[in-house]
Design brief:
Pfam families: DALR_1, tRNA-synt_1d. This protein is α/β, with parallel strands linked by helices and 633 residues long. It has three domains: 113 residues, Gyrase A, domain 2; 165 residues, 3-Layer(aba) Sandwich (Rossmann fold), CATH 3.40.50; 184 residues, Isoleucyl-tRNA Synthetase, Domain 1, CATH 1.10.730.10. The protein has 24 helices and 14 strands. Helix 22 packs antiparallel against helix 23. Arginine binds next to loops.
Amino acid sequence: TSLDALQGLLENLGLEDPIPPFTSCDVLTRPLDIFHSYLADILVKIAYCEPQVAYDAIQWATDMNNGDLDVVVPKLRIKTTDNKELTRDLAEKFPQSSLFSLPLADGIHLRVFFLSKSLPKVLLPYIHDRKETYGIDTAAGLRDPATSSPDASAGTRKKVVVEFSSPNIGAKFEGAHLRSTLIGSYIASMHEAHGWDVVRLNYLGDWGKQLGLLAAGWTRFGSDELFAADPLRHLLDVYLQIEELFRPEQEARDKLRDEKKDTAEIESQGLYAERDGFFKKMEDGDADALALWTKFRDVSIESYRILYAAMNVTFDEYAGESQVNRDIIAEVEATLREKGFLEESDGSWLIDYKKHGHKGLSTAILRGRTGSTTYLLRDIAAAVERDRKYAFDKMVYVVKAEQESHFQRIFAALEMMGLADLRSRLEHVSFAKCVDLGETALLSDIIGTSQSAARIVIESDPDNYASFPATTATPTTADRFGIAALQVQEMLVRRNNNTHFSADRMVSLEVSSGARLQYWYGRLCAALQGATPDLEDLDYALLVEEDYTNLLRVMTQFPDIVQGAFRTMEATGLLTYLFRIVDQISVILEDEEDEEEAGGASSSVGARLALLESVRLVLRNGMGVLGVEPVLV
Ligand code: ARG
């Protein structure tokens, strides 16, 4: 993986000149940069331009039919009245090269293809030298020793806190919680793969008036027996019943509010009083109230822990609104009050954001009329608390887009407090809706639906899945297929588009799906049969066939694709890329199988094995970055 080794490899191809050096170019992690640099060098020689200008005029070809690299000729900044003419001229002058075939002049674009004869000779050793690090800049999360603070406690890795999932105790596990779980988990995996220290944090909705309402429900509908049998389902059941009972009171209150009449009286009676009274007791530390609440919370966490584990998700901390430090809450209020941002209105304490220069944000209450804290106040304090606890470089909140303005309020409040630096390290990663979830109300329903869809597909075609271990231990092969299916369905969609939950689709082998990804990864492993090919003296001649060449051309881009995914914290691009490889490899493996049956080409040719192994590495590494666990390892 050293520059010398790479240089040696290229010399074997007949490239006498050392790799031309360019800044912003990293030939040791991105093979595309090798081609990019040599192409720039050729342009310097035939167009007499500045090296960096030549380098910057080259871009990726967006469509593989149009080559691998694309020289945008006007960007070479050569004085000419006819750039098309110049392009044709450059194509003619383009020398014989061990890396490129002769380019195509296409308008003002010079379209350059990698030479299929040398591509495998560069790329296969390149990938095999790097193995599980191919494509992944594992040092991206390391602090630059030159610029990092001398403070030894800061450590050498950067730290990110990823807050995700965060369901509410006693309530439905909504599409938004599902998406947050899946997105948060790939964001955490991406950072881990890139060498960051990652703290996974679940900020449970375990505090607030709705817990008071749940308690009111418990006294009427709660059953210890049902709770023990299926805690999350029973709590939800209790909650739905009390909500039903509460609805008329709420409607009466909302009517008054809409008529701009006083709601204080109605809120001091009935279930309102019971709900708020219970929550007030919780906030005041009442032992009985807290005992009941603790029981709900502890058992819910235990249940979630098991469900998350089934999804390959673990949390380093089950935080929650209830756990936010009281002293820090008081500190936040004191600072805001001191600086004149907190004002009293009608018994509650609020910030009038508009008044303080935040035009898009309206008034928000921090402490309510009954003296209890709000969601907003707890969140502001939680940010301060986590910063002190973890000293993170970045914290990502993976929360639905509907809470955009809530996060704007948190961030604005931190700025008001004089914590601009903390604010600059916070990011709200938002997402749109998950639709078509149907009757599912709990995470266990969602997991169950996905896994049984996988089971049905596998059981209906056992021969096809023969290479997968038929284990009866949990998680079974079908269980893992189901989870990958769920993950991949989320990752196929950009965060700000809606996802459509469809159990049938996620396990179909005919479309891009988690099942398809796992299936072909498995077929590839089966074809390799554990062979680790020796790259000495391979006969690469076989690999010039178009199917193989195209696969190699795609694999060259892998590091750049991973980098893009990490930068944008979007999985779509990387996953779509992995499916391009899956599509290609499925054709190759099936063709080979047909040929074998017809008594054709021997399948043990070393070069072919080397290619398959590097395809496997790319798929494996890509899945690793996304946190998708291969069923066949
Ligand atoms: N429990 C909240 C909900 O279900 C999500 C929490 C989001 N995180 C936060 N720091 N506010 O809507």
